[in-house]
């Protein structure tokens, strides 16, 4: 399903004024495609991801997933929507230290009451490492578990924040390739926030944010 952000404006309190983090931002991400969001520090990339994740409510504008407007829904409806439809991959894989790779996935699917899917580990190339705990995995392998975990519930929207920042170039490129492949395979609408423009050759759209506005390219 597609993701659309329509005229999103977001401000934060800033002393006795408001700081405009996103200024009438439009973004359309068709199903099965990856949109990279680039821009300098403080340009609003994380804010955009937080709005798309329905974690932060914008001052104005609409968030539309698969044709349904989702901003403005109540808290429990948004929690259910996030569990069901939105996968989030954070910069640092926040895996639970005591659990094996397979267990990290099972915990997610139990939380949502769905069947565990350790086969996902095979999809991300970790079938032989299912029994390892996070400290027994490399940074790139941990990020793969993180991605597999975000995909457990087959989300319609995948939001990825700086997935390569802790990785060397080759491992970073492999992670972007993996995200792109899974996006195509599952028909996900994927937004990938990154500082690093060197990996962007394979993505479908690159959006540059400057001071909270989309700069046309
Ligand atoms: N909770 C907050 N309260 C007040 N201001 C905030 C808050 N979060 C972000 N900001 C401000 O909003 C603007 C956009 O921040 P945001 O984190 O979205 O940028 P970014 O592009 O993700 O930056 P970076 O690349 O450094 O992570 C910045 O000026 C930041 O200082």
TrEMBL record:
Q: Provide GO CC annotations from the record.
A: plasma membrane
Keywords, in A-Z order: ATP-binding, Nucleotide-binding, Transport
SUPFAM superfamilies, per this entry?
Answer: P-loop containing nucleoside triphosphate hydrolases (SSF52540)
Q: Which PROSITE patterns match?
A: ABC_TRANSPORTER_1, ABC_TRANSPORTER_2
- Highest taxon, organism lineage: Bacteria
Q: Which residues cross the membrane?
A: none
Residue ranges annotated for the ABC transporter domain, each copy included: 3-217
Cross-referenced SMART domains, in alphabetical order?
AAA
- Molecular function terms, GO-annotated: ATP binding; ATP hydrolysis activity; transmembrane transporter activity
Protein name as annotated: Putative ABC transport system ATP-binding protein
Q: Which organism is it from?
A: Actinokineospora terrae
């Amino acid at each position: 399903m597609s993701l659309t952000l329509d005229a999103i404006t977001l401000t934060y309190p800033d002393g006795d004024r408001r700081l405009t983090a996103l200024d009438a931002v439009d973004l359309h991400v068709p199903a099965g495609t990856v949109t990279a969001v680039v821009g300098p520090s403080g340009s609003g990339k994380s804010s955009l991801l937080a709005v798309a994740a329905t974690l932060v409510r914008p001052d104005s504008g609409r968030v539309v997933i698969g044709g349904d407007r989702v901003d403005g829904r109540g808290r429990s409806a948004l929690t259910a929507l996030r569990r069901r439809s939105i996968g989030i991959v954070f910069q640092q894989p926040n895996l639970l230290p005591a659990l094996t790779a397979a267990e990290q996935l099972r915990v997610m699917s139990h939380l949502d009451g769905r069947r565990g899917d350790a086969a996902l580990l095979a999809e991300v190339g970790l079938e032989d490492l299912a029994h390892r705990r996070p400290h027994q995995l490399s940074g790139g392998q941990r990020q793969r578990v993180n991605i597999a975990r975000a995909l457990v519930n087959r989300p319609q929207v995948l939001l990825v924040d700086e997935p390569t920042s802790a990785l060397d170039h080759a491992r970073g490129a492999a992670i972007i390739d993996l995200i792109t492949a899974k996006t195509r395979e599952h028909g996900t609408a994927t937004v990938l926030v990154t500082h690093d423009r060197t990996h962007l050759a394979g993505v479908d759209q690159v959006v540059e944010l400057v001071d909270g506005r989309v700069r046309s390219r």
